């Protein structure tokens, strides 16, 4: 029997609540399927650890993760630790250290969940946003001089490389090609940002020649927000820079009903290192500890993880179970219901065990 070694990093706020739910669903799937096992090691890397020891994870943290088949991540961020400290202390070193350059964010309106867009329901909005995840605006380059003085200057330097842009573009075209509509929208801001993002447009046109069966178009990111709201059916696969796709995918999550249903996979397509799977949302201090965090995003990303591991049947079963439970109206308050995290999790696990999904 195959055994997958999973590193769980629940971290902060609702992270531990949704990761516990996700692990319960994975264990239930493994038991039902009978052809694979998951072997979970949980790490306490978090803002609490930072407050205790001065570091979110140990120096050799990434080294420890190398031995795993996948990383299952909750959310990081605490009210009393600056967000750039938590982000750069845990999540980004893993994404960048393991060269997880493709961040894949599917968005669909699940049955039973309503979109804030009038007249748009399940089937009308089915997107995958591909986010460049290794460079661009989040490459960590920049600096500050004359700190605190009137002359102070801060720079935030975005870096785009031909290698980096070409590989994400190929990933996005290949993904678009694998989907029914074979449609890709390439997002930039190449009117105002005339160096790296003009290069981005040029590389898109070059890579497009390798995929003659994919229909593609270009959008400026500001106009893209309008198109997502006004004409969601016109979109399918979307590729954008690290910053632009970060913003667009929060909007996409909201249009699909809630951030609580939006998953993401940080993939190393070359499989040199473990990939990392997480809900898009953060640690949600406002609801942490109340038992009402929506676990659906975490179930969905668990399905992405199973797919990445080659367990397509289990991934599909998990998504069918989630869709059934949503359609049955077992929903947390963020999507208009009264169910708790536990209610939704138990219902999903029952559906997995049942013969109906
Ligand atoms: P957030 O995603 O934590 O919360 C935004 C809003 O969405 C809140 O009202 C929250 O209650 C709601 N929400 C989010 N997930 C939900 C879920 N599963 N179920 C129900 N409601 C949900 O974003 P924020 O409030 O801007 O940030 C809080 C902290 O999380 C900050 O420290 C931030 O830096 C961090 N953060 C971390 C990540 C990450 O770890 N990948 C991502 C985003 C934000
Ligand atoms: Mn984000």
From TrEMBL:
<dbReference type="InterPro" id="IPR011829">
    <property type="entry name" value="TTC_DH"/>
</dbReference>
<feature type="domain" description="Isopropylmalate dehydrogenase-like">
    <location>
        <begin position="5"/>
        <end position="348"/>
    </location>
</feature>
<dbReference type="GO" id="GO:0050319">
    <property type="term" value="F:tartrate decarboxylase activity"/>
</dbReference>
<comment type="similarity">
    <text>Belongs to the isocitrate and isopropylmalate dehydrogenases family.</text>
</comment>
<dbReference type="InterPro" id="IPR050501">
    <property type="entry name" value="ICDH/IPMDH"/>
</dbReference>
<keyword id="KW-0560">Oxidoreductase</keyword>
<comment type="function">
    <text>Has multiple catalytic activities. Apart from catalyzing the oxidation of (+)-tartrate to oxaloglycolate, also converts meso-tartrate to D-glycerate and catalyzes the oxidative decarboxylation of D-malate to pyruvate.</text>
</comment>
<keyword id="KW-0464">Manganese</keyword>
<keyword id="KW-0479">Metal-binding</keyword>
<dbReference type="GO" id="GO:0046553">
    <property type="term" value="F:D-malate dehydrogenase (decarboxylating) (NAD+) activity"/>
</dbReference>
<comment type="pathway">
    <text>Carbohydrate acid metabolism; tartrate degradation; 2-hydroxy-3-oxosuccinate from L-tartrate: step 1/1.</text>
</comment>
<protein>
    <recommendedName>
        <fullName>D-malate dehydrogenase [decarboxylating]</fullName>
        <ecNumber>1.1.1.83</ecNumber>
        <ecNumber>1.1.1.93</ecNumber>
        <ecNumber>4.1.1.73</ecNumber>
    </recommendedName>
</protein>
<dbReference type="GO" id="GO:0009027">
    <property type="term" value="F:tartrate dehydrogenase activity"/>
</dbReference>
<dbReference type="GO" id="GO:0051287">
    <property type="term" value="F:NAD binding"/>
</dbReference>
<dbReference type="GO" id="GO:0000287">
    <property type="term" value="F:magnesium ion binding"/>
</dbReference>
<dbReference type="InterPro" id="IPR019818">
    <property type="entry name" value="IsoCit/isopropylmalate_DH_CS"/>
</dbReference>
<dbReference type="Pfam" id="PF00180">
    <property type="entry name" value="Iso_dh"/>
</dbReference>
<comment type="pathway">
    <text>Carbohydrate acid metabolism; tartrate degradation; D-glycerate from L-tartrate: step 1/1.</text>
</comment>
<dbReference type="InterPro" id="IPR024084">
    <property type="entry name" value="IsoPropMal-DH-like_dom"/>
</dbReference>
<keyword id="KW-0520">NAD</keyword>
């Amino acid at each position: 029997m195959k055994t997958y070694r999973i590193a769980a990093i629940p971290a902060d706020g609702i992270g531990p609540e949704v990761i516990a739910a996700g692990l319960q669903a994975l264990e239930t799937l493994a038991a039902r399927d009978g052809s694979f096992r998951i072997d979970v090691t949980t790490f306490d890397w978090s803002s609490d650890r930072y407050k205790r020891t001065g570091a979110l994870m140990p120096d050799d943290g990434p080294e420890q993760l190398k031995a795993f088949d996948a990383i299952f991540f909750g959310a990081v961020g605490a009210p009393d630790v600056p967000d750039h400290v938590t982000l750069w202390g845990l999540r980004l070193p893993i994404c960048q250290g393991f060269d997880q350059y493709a961040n894949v964010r599917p968005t669909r309106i699940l049955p039973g969940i309503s979109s804030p867009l009038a007249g748009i329901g399940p089937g009308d909005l089915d997107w995958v946003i591909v986010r460049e995840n290794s460079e661009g605006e989040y490459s960590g380059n920049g600096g500050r001089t004359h700190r605190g003085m009137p002359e102070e200057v801060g720079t935030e330097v975005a870096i785009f490389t031909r290698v980096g842009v070409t590989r994400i573009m190929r990933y996005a075209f290949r993904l678009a090609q694998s989907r029914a509509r074979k449609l890709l929208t390439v997002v930039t801001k190449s009117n105002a940002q005339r160096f790296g993002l003009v290069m981005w447009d040029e590389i898109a046109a070059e890579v497009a020649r390798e995929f003659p069966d994919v229909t593609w178009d270009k959008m400026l990111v500001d106009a893209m927000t309008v198109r997502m709201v006004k004409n969601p059916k016109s979109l399918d696969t979307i590729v954008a820079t690290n910053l632009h796709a970060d913003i667009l995918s929060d909007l996409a999550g909201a249009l699909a009903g809630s951030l609580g249903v939006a998953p993401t996979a940080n993939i190393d397509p070359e499989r040199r290192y473990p990939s990392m799977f997480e809900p898009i949302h953060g640690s949600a201090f406002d609801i942490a500890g109340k038992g009402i965090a929506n676990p659906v995003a975490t179930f969905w990303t668990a399905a992405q993880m199973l797919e990445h591991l080659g367990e397509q049947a289990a991934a599909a079963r998990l998504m069918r179970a989630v869709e059934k439970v949503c359609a049955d109206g077992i929903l947390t308050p963020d999507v208009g219901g009264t169910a708790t995290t536990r209610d939704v999790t138990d219902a999903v696990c029952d559906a997995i065990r049942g013969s109906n999904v």
